[in-house]
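I have been asked to look over a protein record a colleague put together. Thanks in advance; the entry in question is below.
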Amino acid sequence: MITHLHLKQGSSLGQPPLTVEIPPSVTIFVGPNNSGKSQCLRELFAFCQNGDLNAARLILEKLTFASVSPDVVNKEIETAKQQPNIGETVHQSHSILKFGVERIQIPTDRFLNARISPNAFLNEFTSWYLRHFTLNLDGPNRIGLINPQSRGDLKHPSNPLARLLTDDQKRASLRKVIFDAIGMHFAIDASHGDQLSVRFGRTPPPDERRFHDETLEYMRNALDIGAVSDGVKAFTGILLQLHAGNPKIIIVDEPEAFLHPSLVLKLGKELAKGAATEGKHVFASTHSPQFVMGAILSGAKVNIIRLTYTPGSGGTARLLSNTELNMLMRDPLLRSVGVLSALFYDYVVVSEADADRAFYQEVNERLLAADDVRGVPSTLFLNAENKQTIPKIVAPLRKLGIPTAAIADIDVLKDGGDEWTRHLKACGVPVDEHQPYGTRRARVLDTLRNKNPEFKTAGGVNLLNGADREVADNLLNDLGRYGFFIVPRGEVETWLSTLNVPRNKIGWLRSIFEKMGSDISSADYVKPATGDVWDFVGHIRNWLADANRRGIPL
């Protein structure tokens, strides 16, 4: 059906627009708030309705579609062909075709051409054919997907429940998926008039296609849809459409809505796997790491596209590497600190330890609360185990195009050789500059040690003066141009020294937070000021917000 998705933006400003091959599977749009995820889905749906290439779209350029053979189209025409109603006039060379519930009269030859060459006859293809096979799922209608449906003619089932009732194998497969997810057995109740209803039982149902006493008793005791949560309704309804519905394209904004996190992961996995199996295209936008994780763990080829938007600069669209995302999910350290959540933020800041993370995050929150330009909005603060593991978090996020700053205490300068090179590689410093930076690091380290072997706690670069200070400042400033920020005073505990907090590692964070205060109306509440850690975070903000920042792959 769809072969390629063409967007208007590229991986960064000035880069070619993104074009993505789209196999039957799930394409997931991620990114911060207001990055264009929902807008992209709306534009996709509108394009599948009328294919207007002249429409003023912001994110989507177009979709391209696969050609099909005349034999395939002729079979579709014969299957969908309807006899005219009494008194109905059929125009010469026209056919009456029925797709889903809609019956349309169209020129047969033009329809044939539009199906054979959809990209050349885009408006006809989308308005006569594709729109009947595109399902847009918003919040309310996904809950109603398992409402009772007409049984109709089971020799030619026309709705998902009827199709499922006549397919024992598919019904059993869907029942297993639903039971594994919610612990209840999906059943179709055909015992009431011309309706098919969904019920949920504690045990597998007897044969739903026969009205034996056992089956009737089971349906009396099973839960109807009014007795289950909206999450169960949405989860079941989406999978029902995927496996038994007629849509070839399913568009769903925030599939995690109404669902428990464990169901979100399961839905992501089943949507990706089921779409590939059923030959369907699912487009979703999400704020859920669990949904992304489930889709990737399915084993199906999944496209993850990260959108961003900066007022005044424009938007970006980047296809994320499944290999890199797999590493984020499977590495115990990365998984434990919630690195996958970075997909939904504008920026990330990584520090050495949890206390560092909490402190810098609080400083940033106070800057934002004061409307201070040094504050960094939409930023995820993460921590490594120590300074040596900072690159393990920074490197994969940078490869995904996520602006990620690193903060380390000044004793990171002691890490020579491969340890130092890992920091440089993670922050995108060109390979040809690794040796010069190593030489500079060694010189500054020797100068600091000569001044005071305990330079980390004794004042950092403040110990130096003259040319020695200038050399140290230049090194730290140059590293900052690549988003690698070394605490010039030495360590995190040296910030806000006027508060006179004991610098003991144990209990320092609690003590500094007590001194900073929690009541903004109190005279003792510490607010942003000039210099100190406030300016340090401001420097980080300047790098993160710079569209021309160094250290992020194109």
User: Anything to note?
Assistant: Residues 2-66+137-310 form a domain with the Rossmann fold fold (CATH 3.40.50.300). The chain has two domains: 2-66+137-310, 339-545. The chain has a mean pLDDT of 92.
